[in-house]
Design goal:
- The protein has 480 residues and is of the alpha/beta class.
- The chain folds into 2 domains: 159 residues, Rossmann fold (3-Layer(aba) Sandwich); 284 residues, Dihydrodipicolinate Reductase, domain 2, CATH 3.30.360.
- The chain is 32% helix and 20% strand.
- Strands 8, 9, 10, 11, 12, 13, 14, 15, 16, 17, 18 and 19 form a 12-stranded mixed beta sheet that branches. It has a 7-stranded parallel beta sheet with strand order 1-4-3-2-5-6-7, with helices on both faces.
- α10 crosses α12.
Length: 480
C-alpha cells in the first residue's frame, strides 16, 4: 500500500497560514474549464466508510475522472483502494497540499464536513460534501463564505437534487398545478436497534489516529461499543436521525417548495425511549415548523412498529418521504419517486418517476468543468437550507424540558397533523412497552430568516447552539 502521513503537530492554523504565504498561487492556477472540457479531473476521497466506498465507486464510473488518493483517520479502511497508483493518506491536510488533486469528496463523520470543506476551498480544491453538509448552522454559513471567496464549486451530497421526481414536482407546484400548499409532513420511519451500553471508555481501535478522527469535535473518551457509525447517535459528533436520514427528505421538501430561506417557527419534542444505551440523540423526534405561514411536521422514528412486530411503522400510508397537501391535490414523494393524488388520496393525478439521483457525481464533475456554480444540482447554499431545517429541530430539542403529551399538543398548537403525529408517537412508544417519562419538549423558537438568528423567547440560548465549540487545531476561522 502506498501511503503518505503528515506529523500531527501540523496544526490546521499553521497549514492554512502556509497556504496563504505560498499563496495566491494555489488560487491563481488555471481553472479546469479554462484548460478545456476534456481535461481529466483528479479527485481524492476523504472518509472510506460506507459512503466513501460509494464515492469511490461512483466517481470511478464518471468519464474523465480519476480517483488519485483515498484518506481516512483509520488506516484499516484504505488498504482495499490503495492500488493502481491510488495513494493512501491518513491526514487530510496532505491531500490538500497535493497540486495534482482538483477536487475532494468528503464522506467523514458529520463533525468534519465543514472544516474540511473550508480548508479545501482555501487550498483551491472543489468540494463534494456528504449530507448533512454541516454539524451546525454557523458551519454551513462559513462554508458558503469560503465557496464564494475562493470561487470553488461546492456540491452537497443530497443526491435527490439530481433526481427527476422532485424536480418535476417542484415545477408543477411552482406553476400552481395543485393550488396553494396547505400543510406538509416530512418523515423517515425506521427500525433501528440500541447501540449498547458501556460503563467505561472503550479503547481506540488499532490503526485509528484519534486526534485526526475527532478533529474539530471533542476528543473525549469513547463511550460506545462500536467505534464507527454509532457516533451518529451522540451529539458531539453526529446529529441523530434528523441529520442522518431526515435531511434527505427535508432537502426534497425545500426543493419542491422552492425554499431559499429557513422556517420562521420551530418547536421540537421527543426522546430516547425504551432503549438503555449510550446514545443521547432522540430515537423518536417530531418537530412543528412554519415557513411563510405553511405548517410543517418533520419527524423521525427509530423504534419498531411494536414489541411484537419488528419492522418500521407506517404513518398515513407512508414510511418515508413527504406528504404535501395542496388545495387541489396531494403529493406523496420519496426517494424512488412519487405520485400526485386528488385530495382524498385515492385517484392518481400524475406520476413522478425517480432514479434516486444517480447522476449526482456526474453533475458535480460537469460543474467543475464549466466553472459555473449554477450548474450544480445541490450547491452548498441549498444544502445549508435543507440541513439547517434539521439543525433548527435539534436546537429546539436540546433546549427542551420534561413534558407530558398534552403539554406537547398545547405547545405545537391546533394544527391537526401535529396532534395526529403526537398521538401516533405516544401509541407507538406504548406498543413497544416503553414509558413516556421523560418526553422532552423544546421551546417554540422564532427564527429570523434574513439575519439567520433566533429572536424572542430563549433566543440567547438558541443562538449559542448555532455554533458548536471546536478544538483549535482544526477550528474553522471566523474569517475564512
Amino acid at each position: 500500500m502506498v501511503s503518505i502521513n503528515v506529523p500531527n503537530s501540523v496544526s490546521r492554523r499553521s497549514f492554512v497560514k502556509g497556504l496563504a504565504t505560498a499563496g495566491a498561487g494555489v488560487l491563481a492556477a488555471p481553472s479546469l474549464h479554462a484548460q478545456g472540457a476534456n481535461k481529466e479531473v483528479r479527485v481524492a476521497v476523504i472518509g472510506m466508510g460506507v459512503r466513501g466506498k460509494g464515492h469511490f465507486s461512483s466517481l470511478s464510473r464518471v468519464p474523465g475522472v480519476k480517483v488519485v488518493a483515498v484518506c481516512d483517520a483509520d488506516k484499516n479502511r484504505m488498504s482495499k483502494y490503495a492500488k493502481d497508483g491510488v495513494l493512501a493518506v491518513q491526514d487530510y491536510r496532505k491531500i490538500l497540499e497535493m497540486k495534482d488533486v482538483d477536487a475532494i469528496t468528503i464522506a467523514t463523520p458529520n463533525h468534519w464536513h465543514a472544516s474540511m470543506t473550508v480548508a479545501g476551498c482555501q487550498a483551491g480544491k472543489h468540494v463534494y460534501v456528504e449530507k448533512p453538509v454541516s454539524h451546525s448552522l454557523w458551519e454551513s454559513q462559513q462554508m458558503i463564505k469560503a465557496a464564494r471567496k475562493y470561487n470553488r464549486i461546492v456540491q452537497g451530497g443530497n443526491q435527490q437534487r439530481s433526481c427527476p421526481s422532485p424536480q418535476a414536482a417542484a415545477k408543477d407546484i411552482a406553476a400552481g398545478k395543485y393550488g396553494k400548499v396547505l400543510w406538509v409532513h416530512c418523515m423517515k420511519l425506521n427500525h433501528r436497534k440500541p447501540i449498547g451500553l458501556v460503563t467505561k471508555p472503550t479503547p481506540v481501535p488499532g490503526g485509528v489516529d484519534y486526534n485526526l478522527w475527532a478533529g474539530p469535535a471533542p476528543a473525549t473518551p469513547i463511550m460506545r461499543k462500536q467505534f464507527h457509525y454509532d457516533w451518529h447517535w451522540q451529539f458531539d459528533w453526529g446529529d441523530g436521525e434528523m441529520g442522518n436520514w431526515a435531511v434527505h427528505y427535508t432537502d426534497d421538501l425545500c426543493h419542491m417548495l422552492g425554499w431559499e430561506t429557513l422556517p420562521e417557527k420551530v418547536c421540537s419534542a421527543g426522546g430516547r425511549f425504551v432503549w438503555d444505551d449510550n446514545g443521547d440523540t432522540p430515537n423518536m423526534h417530531f418537530t412543528y415548523m412554519e415557513h411563510q405561514g405553511v405548517p410543517i411536521m418533520v419527524e423521525i422514528r427509530d423504534l419498531p412498529h411494536s414489541a411484537s412486530r419488528k419492522a418500521p411503522t407506517v404513518y398515513k400510508g407512508t414510511r418515508g418521504g413527504n406528504i404535501i397537501m395542496c388545495e387541489k391535490g396531494m403529493i406523496r414523494l420519496a426517494r424512488g419517486g412519487g405520485k400526485a393524488y386528488e385530495t382524498n388520496g385515492k385517484k392518481v393525478i400524475k406520476a413522478y418517476p425517480g432514479n434516486a439521483g444517480k447522476g449526482h457525481f456526474a453533475n458535480f464533475i460537469d460543474a467543475i468543468r464549466s466553472g459555473k456554480k449554477d450548474d450544480l444540482a445541490a450547491e452548498i447554499a441549498t444544502g445549508h437550507i435543507s440541513t439547517g431545517v434539521c439543525h433548527l429541530a435539534n436546537i429546539s430539542y436540546k433546549l427542551g424540558q420534561q413534558a407530558t403529551p398534552d403539554q406537547v399538543c398545547e405547545a405545537m398548537g391546533s394544527h391537526q397533523d401535529a396532534r395526529d403525529t403526537i398521538n401516533s408517537v405516544v401509541a407507538q412508544v406504548k406498543a413497544n412497552n416503553g414509558s413516556l417519562d421523560p418526553m422532552q419538549l423544546g421551546p417554540m423558537l422564532t427564527f429570523d430568516p434574513k439575519t439567520e438568528k433566533f429572536v424572542g423567547n430563549m433566543a440567547t440560548q438558541a443562538n449559542t447552539l448555532m455554533k458548536l465549540p471546536q478544538r483549535d487545531e482544526f477550528a474553522i476561522p471566523d474569517q475564512v
